[in-house]
Amino acid sequence: MNALDIAYMWDLVPVIAGYIPLTLFMALVSMVLALILSAMLAIVRVLKLPVIDRGVAIFISFFRGTPLLVQLFLFYYGLPQLFSFMTNINGVTAAIIGLTLHFSAYMAESIRGAILGVDRSQWEAAASIGMTQGQLLRRIILPQAARTAAPTLMNYFIDMIKGTSLAFTLGVTEMMGAAQKEAAGSFLYLEAFLVVALFYWGIVEILSVGQRRMEQYLGKAVAR
Amino acid sequence: MSCNIEISGLTKRFGQNTVLNNIDLCLKPGERVAIIGPSGTGKSTLLRCLNFLDAPDEGRITLGDLKVDAARASKADILALRRRTGFVFQNYALFANKSARQNIMEGLTTVRGWPAAKATDRANQILTRIGLADRGDSFPSALSGGQQQRVGIGRAMALDADLMLFDEPTSALDPEWVGEVLDLIRAIADGRQTMLIVTHEMQFAREIADRVVFMEGGRIVEQGPPDQIFGNARDERTRAFLRRVG
Ligand SMILES: Nc1ncnc2c1ncn2[C@@H]1O[C@H](COP(=O)(O)OP(=O)(O)O)[C@@H](O)[C@H]1O
Ligand SMILES: [Mg+2]
Fold first, then answer.
1. ABC transporter domain: from which residue to which, for each copy (chain B) (predicted)?
2. Beta carbons of A124 and B53 less than 8 Å apart
3. What is the pLDDT of residues A143-201, one digit of tens each?
4. Total domains in the fold of chain B
5. What is the B227 CA–ligand 1 centroid distance (Å)?
6. Given A4, A192, A207, B2, which is the most exposed site by the fewest CB atoms within 10 A?
7. What is the domain extent for residue B215?
8. Which of B47, B77, B92, B110 should be substituted to probe chain A, the one whose Cβ sees the most A Cβ atoms within 10 Å?
9. DSSP letter string over A82-94?
10. Does ipTM exceed 0.95?
11. Range B119-158 burial, b when 16+ CB lie within 10 A, else e
């Protein structure tokens, strides 16, 4: 057994690090879009809006019931067959769409749970002063639900960062794709994948520290 | 003076259970009306129907020029009615994510569209009025029960409502805070603000109300000036109730 080629690993560090921005870009854009979409899905479910509620339930069931990788392939390879305007879809866009839809299905369920956890009296008090349903959701209910859901949503963000590695299967050279390319050239698979693993680990650890801080802050801010 | 607030034929059912049975009530401007009666009798439901927190099945609610037919109320009717009736909840129900001042301002900025500066001024006046001028930035979780209920009253005051509805405003309070909340209600009951107060504080009802309404089984059994109801009730059910609580 050969020892690890540490020098090679050091050389890889700046190479892989150069792809951190793309990885974070995909994760952040997907997260922002997923937050918006999942909040809308959750509201449809909570208010049981006729007809759409059924559709949303099926949407959530599908995106939770199938692997992310399969969903990515569906968007990237499958959909262009149906819609010609999608022929030119690039891997990054397809990955962002896939991550957004996949994670919004999960996040919608946590947000729905958090909304249902807000005391009934908060809805009534907001309604009693004449707020419309939109106003009371936006100003009273969602902010309170967000506090409850925040730790879970942060977990999904961490999953999402790791999920971006699947974009390499769509031909995107992000952190994982870069490691794969390097390894294919040098045959030093262990070193290349170890370096990329350490990068993911480091990023997630930094976020976890942020997550703990946030939980402490939220715990203190509004204890009910 | 004639009524400017009129409730007629108000009926509410929960499934088979008729909780409000054909309620008629008329309030003159500035009148303070106390509602008393055994629990489970529909007192809260009556107030909640007036604010459409529960949708009445039948009847009409008239607030000045606003006439709402319960069976045919549109979304706009319901919003208009809510904007003209303030509701004070038994459990305060302050917005947990807003400070005391923001709780009071919310109806002014979000609902009425006032600019923030004007709403802040108004909220500060109300904070002074409710004796919490120095607690405007406190969140509900940092306030005592009595302080929370005073903010709850302040939030309803901010609406400048035609009618203020109080649903047992002191019954969730520890005894030590009851006095300050009753004092505040006395101060607002200045003869200009029309009020409908559900209370189990008989002494308070007697002292503050222009008229006392006794309800039982979803109906108004008897109503009249406090001295008459408390001293010389005509209906045996009223007398029996007052013996029990007195
Ligand atoms: N949301 C509801 N669903 C079903 N029944 C209800 C509901 N709210 C109140 N009730 C019933 O209506 C009756 C009157 O309740 P309520 O108005 O709270 O009485 P009160 O305030 O006089 O104590 C009670 O029998 C109660 O069980
Ligand atoms: Mg009640």
1. 5-242
2. yes
3. 999 999 999 999 999 999 999 999 999 999 999 999 999 999 999 999 999 999 999 99
4. 1
5. 29
6. B2
7. 5-245
8. B110
9. H-GGGTT--HHHH
10. no
11. bbebbeebbebbbbeebbebbbeebebbbbbbbbbbbbbb
